[in-house]
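#struct-help
A.M.: can someone run this one for me? Single chain, 583 residues.
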Amino acid sequence: MDVGTLRERASDLPREPGVYQFRNGEATLYVGKAVDLRSRVRSYADPRSARIRRMVDRADDLEIAVTDTETQALLLEANLIKRHQPRYNVRLKDDKSYPMVQLTAHEAPQIEITRDPAEAATVFGPFTNKGRLETVVKALRETHGLRGCSDNKYAGRDRPCLDYEMGLCSAPCTREIDLESYREDVQSAVRFFEGETGVLTDPLRRGMETAAESKQFERAAHLRDRLETVEAFHGDADDAVQSMGEGQEHLVDVVGVAIRGEDATVARLRSDRGKLVDRDRHTLEVPATDDEAESAVPAVLAAFLVQYYAERQLPDALLLPERHGDPEVAAWLEAEGVAVRVPGAGREAKLVELALKNARQNVGRRDECGMLADSLGLERARRLEGFDVSHAQGSSAVGSNVAFDDGSADKSGYRRKKLTDENDDYANMRRLVTWRAERALDGRDDRPDPDLLVIDGGRGQLEAALEALEDVGWDVPAIGLAKAEERVVTPDREYDWPRDAPHLHLLQRVRDEAHRFAVQYHQTLRDEVSTVLDDVPGIGPETRKRLLGRFGSVENVRAASLEDLQSVPGVGERTAQTVKERL
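D.P.: on it. Structure tokens below:
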């Protein structure tokens, strides 16, 4: 894009906050935020560096999005960077992004929280606090009866679902409300997100007062808390909170940065009430610059802070090795009540130095995720999910679903499920993967879709998982990794990678963590079962083992007849009657 064209385009832009994208065809080259879109875009006519000049020369189009606040511009920039991975931005290699609200382009629009809104939907956000957003959306649904179900569940219904009975939906699917009236309720939600808070606060206040007058004090308190959340929703900087104040900082995150070439590593340490409780490292891609590596540290810090805390709890304080230099990021953190310091001496300075040491150990390491993607012919393999099942001869059957982001365990993404008690690993794996796939397609799982499923097992377990994916229609690749020979099994071939291959080690970590998590849950359920039977007089360890071996679970023991119970060695008539009475 030549300078004249750029200046001409800039002169037509509004003097409002927003986000701009330099594009080349379908590719996004760079995403930026601005307090004043016209002024910021015009500055690219005189680029600050040769790198920026090359980016502008390659661009053939410019797109903008106006936002209500500077904070929304900051968060939208982070979302677009994660979605498009522009080569001229500093990019954190994870999939988390800030939540938005969309009203779908449907005859009876659905309201939902999403990180990947549909192109034709009416979208609001991004927002920083998902918990607060969920409270607001639930309040909107209860007040105005907006549906939250997927289009698949909406279609073909002949009677209202449970949401209608609970007062969460006015059931346009079965025309309990006519479409014109329903769309008026949708417009009420639109007006709320556009700033007309009374659309929601007035009904909540009336409900609170009515509940108080009726002496329903618990409900009144619940509505009061919800009203406070809704009233704060449109506050300054979108999610204003009060700082705990100096001397009351419980959670402190310490950040260190190391850069080598186009790779950067950020190490984060978390201190809770003075004790180190967590540490992790994250890889960022840094575009080549014309300056020394040290000059890229502020840009890396600014990008990391916004992109990393997309769906993570902000600390009370941040300790940094140097200033990040981004006024919009500074304003956002201040509004969120986060103290930011660059310590020069003392204990805090030692913590920053420890974070720097952690970062330097990791910078420039081989990219396990990239190697895995290349070896399997995938576009990317940043987010992996592992699956395993565990049971004792069919009893207390459970499944585990663990998540890894950029080679590190993401424990907030761990899930577990009780399965049908059956001594069939393939059937249980099919049930587990079906459960995950259906939740993803129905929008009931708020985690991002994985790049790859890692199944603990060989060809049989993998085929069971693939059947589940095909039946549900969830298009996610899957591989199996058996423990015996550590061979990677894919739908069409097997790989025997060297034992020291970094990408094999990554798969082993996912597989082993899924196995550990499944066994842990199975043991918990088995211990609960043992405790119940231990309380029955006359049932010792051996008899308990025989009962569970015969019937599989306490539920089956409870349902068994006296004759069936007496058929178990060691269980007489009196013991059988006691079992029935106690269970």
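A.M.: thanks! The chain has 21 helices and 20 strands.
D.P.: also worth noting: Confidence is low (pLDDT under 50) at residues 236-247, 290-294.
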